Amino acid sequence: MATNSGVTSGREPGPAGAVKREEEDAAGGGAGTAAAPAEANGGTHAGSPAKQCALCPLGEAAEEALGPLLEFRCTAKQRPQGVAGRVVLVHSLCAQWAPRAHYSEEAAAQHSLLMVPDEVQRARKLRCRLCRKPGAAMGCEERTCQQTYHLPCAMGQVG
User: Fold this and answer.
1) Residue 49 domain-assigned?
2) What is the CATH number of the domain that holds 99?
3) Domain assignment present for 74
4) What is the reported pLDDT for 113?
5) pLDDT recorded at residue 104
6) What's residue 86's pLDDT?
7) Number of structural domains, the chain?
8) Structural domain contains residue 89
9) pLDDT value at position 158?
10) pLDDT for 152
11) Contact, 122 vs 78, CB < 8 A?
12) Cα separation, 109 vs 111, whole angstroms
């Protein structure tokens, strides 16, 4: 079984919920949930009524542990198969632990993070070693190991 110490993103994560949704700030706050725009089909996978993170198998129910589901604008090429619209949802901690995502003050940064849609695109081809579902962005810290994991799977919160 993998432990958090056996999986790395190359940096320590910030506190849960450290990244706030721009829409919540503009609306005067909220419960920390992401309300996806109508054209994004709620950011859900086709046929699924619940909101789903693009980088882990969990959704809204895991927001207390993984932070709020944040909306990231993406191209058709970047979003996972089965997701309609131009927005994907990613827990704040899942985004922070994605290896190529990083904080930036650039205007192009979404929720102060760059490269999250690119990580979603890369991870959709990778299956988690533990749960076997796609979207596993985190790799093992051993350079020769090619196993990948979802953040909550590596933390022992799934399965």
Assistant:
1) yes
2) 3.30.40
3) yes
4) 93
5) 93
6) 84
7) 1
8) yes
9) 66
10) 95
11) no
12) 6
pTM comes to: 0.67
pLDDT, mean over the chain: 74
Radius of gyration of the CA atoms of the chain, in A: 15
At 113 the three-state DSSP class reads: strand
Tell me the residue range of the domain where 73 lies: 12-125
Tokens for 133, please give them.
Answer: 């579902």
Query: Residues of the chain whose pLDDT is less than 70?
Result: 1-49, 82-83, 158-159
Residue 76, pLDDT score: 76
3-class DSSP assignment, residue 41 = helix
Question: Is residue 53 within 8 Å of 60, Cβ to Cβ?
Answer: no
Residues 25, 61: Cα–Cα separation, whole Å: 22
Q: What does the alpha-carbon distance between residue 120 and residue 77 come to, in Å, rounded to a whole number?
A: 10
Half-sphere exposure of 67 (CA within 13 A, CB side): 23
- Say if 144 falls within a structural domain: no
- At residue 148, what is the residue type? T
Eight-state DSSP code of residue 44: P
For the chain, where are the alpha helices, taking DSSP H only?
Answer: 22-27, 63-66, 92-97, 116-123, 151-154
Structure tokens at 38: 């109508």
